[in-house]
């Protein structure tokens, strides 16, 4: 179990640990999207990862990093969906019980995914306080081990392996873009760029309707968003001290986009890459398109974070 910012060796070791249990996801590109962006764009398709999201990497690594004695009473977490499924999958692999606290407005595919993996599901109000209180009650009642969605260095090291794989295939990237919610993926991406690439700058895409990370990035302390209203349901969480510390050190900038821009990017991926992604996943592409002068004629990697979308809630009209 890691107690400090993951080193290069930590991320290499993590990758070896989780390699048998994850998919090495493909990297796709599209001439049409390249033309629109004025750049060569390479999409790391974590929507095709186990449980349909990059979160499998961090959740599995965190669970495998625990001692047998620590997980004998099971594992627990709170999550709007993708980390919930990751922890449920890891628990199933280890043969232990998983207790998952989810907000009562979580997308149906994510809820069904957790149930399908055999976890015990506890719904709560869609607030961080309710989620944390739910986990506290579970720990008191069962003794389950808590695996935080992002404020956990083993989780961050796991998420870093997505960019590590991307850079193994495309070592000359000029930039990598990732979405930012709690910052686990972004901080992991920042570390991989720092350790495994000579020149790639890291940028985040963030929804205007959940713009806490951009404020935290500027002030240097964990901030809350002025308001929460966005279709990108996976990006509603604040950064943590751990993720902010890494992001300050490894990320160049955080770029804001609105819901219309997110939906336009989502549609572009559906039409040109022929894959399903969730709105949170489209945020970095939306940021690239909005700021294309910043990336003109560059090689740009984008982490497509997940594909667990409730299609009934999407409208392209």
UniProtKB/TrEMBL annotation:
Species for this entry: Lacihabitans soyangensis
- What are the UniProt keywords, alphabetically? Lyase, Pyridoxal phosphate
Co-factor(s): pyridoxal 5'-phosphate
Entry keyword Lyase: yes
State the Gene Ontology BP annotations: D-serine biosynthetic process
Q: Does the keyword Lyase apply?
A: yes
Residue ranges of every copy of the Tryptophan synthase beta chain-like PALP domain listed in the record: 18-306
State the protein's name. Answer: Threonine/serine dehydratase
Q: Name one Pfam family in it.
A: PALP
Please give the InterPro entries that the UniProt record associates with this protein: TrpB-like_PALP, TrpB-like_PALP_sf
Gene Ontology molecular function, alphabetical? ATP binding; L-serine ammonia-lyase activity; magnesium ion binding; pyridoxal phosphate binding; serine racemase activity; threonine racemase activity
- Sequence similarity: Belongs to the serine/threonine dehydratase family.
Q: Which domain of life is it from?
A: Bacteria
């Amino acid at each position: 179990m890691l107690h400090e910012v993951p080193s290069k060796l930590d991320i290499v070791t993590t990758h070896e640990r989780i390699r048998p249990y994850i998919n090495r996801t493909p990297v796709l590109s599209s001439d049409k999207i390249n033309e629109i962006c004025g750049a060569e764009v390479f999409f790391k398709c974590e929507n095709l990862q186990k449980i349909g999201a990059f979160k499998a990497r961090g959740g599995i690594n965190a669970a495998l990093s625990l001692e047998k004695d620590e997980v004998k009473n099971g594992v627990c977490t709170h999550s709007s969906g993708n980390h919930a499924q990751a922890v449920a999958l890891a628990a199933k692999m280890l043969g232990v019980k998983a207790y998952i606290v989810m907000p009562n407005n979580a997308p149906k595919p994510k809820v069904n995914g957790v149930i399908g993996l055999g976890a015990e599901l506890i719904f709560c109000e869609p607030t961080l306080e309710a989620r944390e209180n739910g986990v506290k009650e579970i720990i008191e009642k069962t003794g389950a081990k808590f695996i935080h969605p992002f404020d956990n260095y083993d989780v961050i090291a796991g998420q870093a392996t997505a960019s590590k794989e991307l850079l193994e295939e495309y070592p000359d990237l000029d930039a990598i873009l990732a979405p930012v919610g709690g910052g686990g993926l972004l901080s992991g991406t920042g570390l991989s760029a720092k350790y495994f690439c000579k020149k790639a700058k890291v940028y985040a895409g963030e929804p205007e309707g959940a713009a806490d990370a951009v404020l935290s990035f500027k002030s240097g302390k964990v901030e809350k968003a002025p308001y929460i209203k966005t279709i990108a349901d996976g990006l509603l969480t604040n950064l943590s001290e751990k993720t902010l510390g890494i992001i300050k050190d490894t990320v160049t900038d955080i770029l804001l986009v609105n819901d219309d821009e997110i939906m336009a990017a989502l549609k572009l991926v559906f039409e040109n890459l022929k894959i399903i992604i969730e709105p949170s996943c489209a945020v970095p592409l939306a940021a690239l398109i909005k700021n294309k002068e910043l990336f003109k004629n560059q090689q740009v990697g984008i982490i497509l974070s997940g594909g667990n979308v409730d299609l009934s809630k999407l409208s392209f009209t």
